[in-house]
UniProtKB/TrEMBL annotation, chain A:
This is Tryptophan synthase beta chain. The beta subunit is responsible for the synthesis of L-tryptophan from indole and L-serine. GO terms for molecular function: tryptophan synthase activity. The lineage of its organism: Bacteria, Pseudomonadati, Pseudomonadota, Betaproteobacteria, Neisseriales. The gene is trpB. Pfam families: PALP. It comes from Chitinilyticum piscinae. Its cofactor is pyridoxal 5'-phosphate.
UniProtKB/TrEMBL annotation, chain B:
It is an enzyme of class 4 (lyase). It comes from the Bacteria. The active site is at 49 (proton acceptor), 60 (proton acceptor). Keywords: Amino-acid biosynthesis, Aromatic amino acid biosynthesis, Lyase, Tryptophan biosynthesis. The alpha subunit is responsible for the aldol cleavage of indoleglycerol phosphate to indole and glyceraldehyde 3-phosphate. It holds the Pfam family Trp_syntA. This is Tryptophan synthase alpha chain. The gene is trpA. It catalyses: (1S,2R)-1-C-(indol-3-yl)glycerol 3-phosphate + L-serine = D-glyceraldehyde 3-phosphate + L-tryptophan + H2O. Its EC number is 4.2.1.20. It comes from Chitinilyticum piscinae. Pathway: Amino-acid biosynthesis; L-tryptophan biosynthesis; L-tryptophan from chorismate: step 5/5. The keyword Oxidoreductase does not apply.
Length: 403, 265
């Protein structure tokens, strides 16, 4: 089971076992074929990769540090918690690693217009940022409910010169934004590059996003050894679609002895049905947004509405590689409820002077839960995927405070 | 011989083109659908594409999105759509019915269960927008064993190399999406459609239906000159949006006008 040295997925058709694939309308297939070919060429092109790394260093500020959350660990009284500080990236989250890569790819393909879907707004901000950086037109689709609960990011996207289109259909959240982005893409296929923000969607997106996010785990593998002389006992990341998680996990698949733990949004509790945890709730596999993966649906195959305090995790599906890693038992997936995530949010503010994103707070809460049961010489490495400035209005509202 | 093939063969023999209306099952409420289907036949429909509403209709424009939402709000499911087809079959054993929708409801039911139930209900074909030939083989094999045609989409962006792949799996007819966009868009370019159809016909022997963007008798007449079948969806669904009052008469009247224009093509 732990022999992952030969892990080489997805296959040429984009499958991770029974997951992944390319479930889209015919009009999009040739564009996805073109993208796959250009992406593979770019990956093998030293000039392209050199420019990507140059941008990550000088524009994003990589490598992001690992930080030992010492006071919080002491307070918890168990394992040591280390944080991979993706919140310190330019734009405040891991999303920019991917948008830089995809924008460079778009430029290489001669596309002058980019579109993106966004939930919490972090991917929208990261897309608008790189569009400004490379002089491209940018349209961001965002569920109307998310537009309301992520107002600071909506304004940031506009400041950066992009257009935000509120999506009023369906549940008015991330999945509906993705539907609308797909409709735009199919209509403007010749001029437009679709920057998908998560490690999901039709092939080659899950692989493409992973390749641009795996820098997170690769840096961790050397940084943590420099700090503690070994690899951690577990790596932990939150999972919505799962892009920061796959970036963190992928380089660790082959590392024996490191537990891989993905944290889904438990909302009000998985047992209540009001959550966004397809893996933890043992949802059946299904087809949505171009891929087969575990998917929250009713008995008639209709997608059900999800719930989470964090817009970025409020999604009924999950990237296909996570479904595969769950299926083969290499990664474990658990859920953290809204109230637990909020408690971790406050703890990190209080003990470390760091305001984490509500998405990342799910991973932090899981780390706290585990740390208490572990020895002081054990180490948990958590991906702090984004900073929480955008969530300040949400948290204030929950405390009944009018800003 | 399948119902679809015999209908299309007969039309071809008489030099006429097929008229294929699309409506969403259960829109705006379940009890109008079966009688609306009969009204379509009265107006000259040769085949009916019956939309299976889905929660996330990614390939559809606003008109059919709203139709799906109305139908789902009234509790429509794939199982109920099959029951409607069975009801329709009690008084019409000739008009082929093609279910059109998205992959997940069929996946959730299971291909084998679906194929058995669909055949029993009198369904003739299935068109799933998000099941391209790359992923369709398991489904295609099971449907074929049950005598149900799997209808594929071809698009302006489809390359010549891909057409052969589709030709291997497709049966019944193929559906050419006349424009880059979602259903109900309105920028159909007949000349470029004609050019593309010529390429497709070099690889595909099946009849080719043309849809997306056909909204009146005149565009239907133009398309009938170049395609083997004319598919009309969003324009008809607008009649449902206008309410149930007089719906069947409006459907019949609209299709009758289209049918006449096509026959004069």
């Amino acid at each position: 089971m732990n022999d992952k040295a030969n892990y080489n997925l997805p296959d040429e058709q984009g499958h991770f076992g029974i997951f992944g694939g390319i479930y889209v309308a015919e009009t999009l297939i040739p564009a996805l074929d073109e993208l796959r070919v250009e992406f593979e060429k770019a990956l093998a092109d030293p000039e392209f990769m050199a420019e990507y790394r140059h941008e990550l260093k000088h524009y994003v500020g990589r490598p992001s540090p690992i930080y030992h959350a010492k006071r919080w660990s002491e307070e918890l009284g168990g394992a040591q918690i280390y944080l991979k500080r993706e919140d310190l990236n330019h734009t405040g989250a891991h999303k920019v690693n991917n948008t830089i890569g995809q924008a460079l790819l778009a430029r290489r393909m001669g596309k002058k217009r980019v579109i993106a879907e966004t939930g919490a707004g972090q991917h929208g901000v990261a897309s608008a940022t790189v569009a400004a950086r490379y002089g491209m037109e940018c349209v961001v689709y965002m569920g109307a409910e998310d537009v309301a609960r992520q107002a600071p990011n909506v304004f940031r996207i506009k400041l950066l010169g992009a257009t935000v289109v509120p999506v009023e259909s369906g549940s008015k959240t991330l999945k509906d934004a993705m539907n609308e982005a797909m409709r735009d893409w199919v209509t403007n296929i010749d001029s437009t590059y679709y920057i998908i923000g998560t490690a999901a969607g039709p092939h080659p997106y899950p692989k493409l996003v992973r390749e641009f996010q795996k820098i997170i785990g690769e840096e961790c593998k050397t940084q943590i050894v420099e700090m503690i002389g070994r690899q951690p006992d577990a790596v932990i990341a939150c999972v919505g679609g799962g892009s920061n998680a796959i970036g963190m996990f992928y380089p660790y698949i082959e590392v024996e002895g490191v537990r891989i733990i993905g944290v889904e949004a438990g909302g009000d509790g998985v047992e209540t049905g009001r959550h966004a945890a397809p893996l933890t709730s043992n949802a059946k596999p299904g087809v949505l947004h171009g891929q087969r993966s575990f998917l929250m649906q009713d008995e008639n195959g209709l997608i059900v509405e999800t719930h989470s305090i964090s817009a970025g995790l409020d999604y009924p599906g999950v990237g296909p590689e996570h479904s595969y890693l769950k299926d083969i038992g290499r990664a474990e997936y658990v859920a953290i409820n809204d109230d637990e995530a909020l408690a971790a949010f406050h703890d990190l503010c209080k003990y470390e002077g760091i305001i984490p994103a509500l998405e990342s707070s799910h991973a932090l809460a899981q780390a706290a839960k585990m740390a208490k049961t572990m020895n002081k010489d054990e180490v948990l490495l958590v991906c702090l995927s984004g900073r929480g400035d955008k969530d300040i209005p949400t948290v204030a509202k929950m405390k009944g405070i009018q800003l | 011989m399948s119902r679809i093939q015999s209908v299309l063969d007969a039309l071809k023999a008489s030099g006429r083109k097929a008229l294929i209306p699309f409506i969403t099952a259960g829109d705006p409420q379940p009890d109008v659908t079966v009688s609306a289907m009969h009204a379509l036949v009265a107006g000259g429909a040769d085949i009916i594409e019956l939309g299976v509403p889905f929660s996330d209709p990614m390939a559809d424009g606003p008109v059919i999105q709203r139709a799906s939402e109305r139908a789902l709000a009234k509790g429509m499911t794939l199982t109920k759509v099959l029951a409607m087809v069975a009801e329709f079959r009690k008084s019409d054993d000739k008009t082929p019915i093609v279910l059109m929708g998205y992959a997940n409801p069929v996946e959730a039911m299971g291909y084998e269960t679906f194929a058995t139930a669909a055949r029993a209900a009198g369904v003739d074909g299935l068109l799933t927008v998000d099941l391209p030939p790359e992923e369709a083989e398991p489904c295609a094999n099971i449907l074929k064993a049950h005598g149900i045609d799997l209808i594929f989409l071809l698009a302006p962006t489809t390359t010549e190399a891909r057409v052969a792949h589709v030709a291997r799996l497709a049966s019944g007819y193929v559906y050419y999406v006349s424009l880059k966009g979602v259903t109900g868009a309105a920028n159909l370019d007949t000349a470029s459609v004609a050019e593309k159809l010529a390429m497709l016909r070099q690889h595909i022997a099946l009849p080719i239906g043309v849809g997306f963007g056909i909204r009146d008798a005149e565009t239907a007449r133009q398309v009938a000159r170049i395609g083997d079948a004319v598919v009309i969806g969003s324009r008809l669904v607008q009649e449902f949006e206008a309410g149930a009052a007089g719906l069947n008469d409006r459907l019949t009247a609209f299709l009758t006008g289209v049918r006449q224009a096509m026959d004069q093509a």
